[in-house]
Amino acid sequence: MKNLLKLLSLTGFALLMTGCSSYDYYQVESNFKMSAASDRIPATITKGQGFEANFPRIATIAVKAPDFCVSESQSQRTGTARAETNVMQTTCGVEMAQIESSLAKAGFGVISWKVLQNEMTVSTSHLDAAKKLKADAMFQINSLERGVTQAGQDARWDRRFYITSGGSKVPTAVDSYMANLLDTYAKQNEQAMIAGIEVLSASINASVTLVENGRAIWFYEWNNVQSQEDADQIVANTYVYCIDGYCQPYTPQEYAAYNDQLVQGTSDAVSIGAKAADRRRAVHDKLMKQVVEDMVGRFTL
């Protein structure tokens, strides 16, 4: 009897101690935010001496390609498909055609870069060739590049705190101590998520030279960096539980509900997405088009 009373007393004490413990389960939802399009660094434009006076007289433009070009087809460059067999292809052709098309839309007479290049076989310089073709100015593309940088530059993580219970989450406010603690655990998870994520860019450097005297009157340079609109959404979820002020991260377990109903068959939808390399090319192509359109638009202002 005495032992039974002792056992009941110990059990009651344990239940009392358990009831006094404080359990809290937190979830930190982190959203990766890159710079918006309006926050990107704008193009650098320099107008040389005589630009304002000579621009109204420019009616025909000869386009000069860089000295070296990567050989790619339209589908390869845009990422819309994989080029199985290239029937016809011109080195520099796709990019230069885009520049020439933009200049033509702006109202200029355009002498193709290929025509200018062919004229060079009998001319001493590109300016001499442009003069023979009766061009007023030469649009020289010095470089046109695709770039890649690591995620985390010009970006931020937006975090929201939640109390979780029974599979649901409720937004919560915490004091500065707990906020710093949750931030510390969340940062570890965030860094692991963006370790292999890249931010794409497209850059161009170009200049415009008067054919009659060889004077450079306009310069353009821009590194167009991928913005949030062009990127996949990145969300990191960090889970932390605290017992009597002691906190540490944990991985929640998900249990699938058991259903004992009999079925006669199953089906799965098949979705074949684009390869990572193709998606990458598609974003690069969009950035490149933005660069070309901005360059020609700024020149005609």
UniProtKB/TrEMBL annotation:
Keywords carried by this UniProt record: Signal
| Residues of the signal peptide | 1-22
Q: Which domain of life is it from?
A: Bacteria
What name goes with this protein? Lipoprotein
Organism equals: Rheinheimera tangshanensis
